Amino acid sequence: MSLSPPSGASKEIPARQGRRSRRGASGPGQGRGRTVRRVSLVLLFLVAQGLFVFSHLFRLQEVEVRGNVRLTRAAILRQAALPEGSYLWALSTRKIAGRLHGLREIRSAEVSMALPGRILLEIRERHPVALVSGGQGTPWYEVDAEGVLLGPSSGSQPWPRLRLNRLDPAAGRIDPAPLLLILKARQWLEPNLPAPPTAYLVDETRSISVETRFLGTPVLVRVGPVEGMPYKMHVLRALTERLKSEGRPAVVIDLRYSSPVVRPLHPEPKPSPTP
Question: Total domain count for the chain?
Answer without folding.
Answer: 2
